[in-house]
Design brief:
single chain, flat, 5 helices, 2 domains, Helicase, Ruva Protein, domain 3, Alpha/beta knot
Length: about 140
């Protein structure tokens, strides 16, 4: 199986933005109006209970992929490549990022690309990089 880590924020103010950006998924635990938030211990209990229930329950049918899903390392390399390309084509301003990369990472977490799809995207980005270098000459 794969190793999964849970990251919980501080009781007083949760996770910082840079910590949130390192997470592949974000979890929101819905609460009632009378109790609009959970303390840290309660949140840990809810999530560990749900993990236990999922593990004890029926096996969830796995989708058959022709290629394995991209590793987190491959995704990080894709994000670095994408960000440098967006800067090269002047679409992404590092001084005023507007949460662009955070939203792109969130989108890719929902999509869950496989290894081949990440390689296709990196090839596309490399072609854009080469075009940019040709136009600069």
């Amino acid at each position: 199986g794969k190793v999964v880590g849970l990251l919980f924020g501080r009781e007083s103010r949760g996770l910082k933005n840079d910590e949130l950006q390192k997470c592949h998924y974000h979890v929101n635990i819905p609460t009632g109006e009378a109790y609009s938030s959970l303390n840290l211990a309660m949140a840990v209990q809810v999530l560990t209970y749900e993990i236990l229930q999922a593990r004890l329950g029926e096996d969830i049918p796995k989708l058959k992929w022709d290629r394995p899903l991209a590793s987190s390392e491959a995704m990080e390399r894709l994000f670095e490549h994408l960000e440098s390309t967006l800067i090269q084509v002047k679409f992404h301003d590092q001084d005023n990022p507007r949460q662009l990369m955070t939203r792109i990472k969130r989108m890719f977490s929902r999509i869950q690309p496989d290894e081949m799809e990440v390689n296709i995207l990196r090839g596309f980005l490399s072609a854009i990089n080469k075009l940019g270098k040709t136009n600069e000459s």
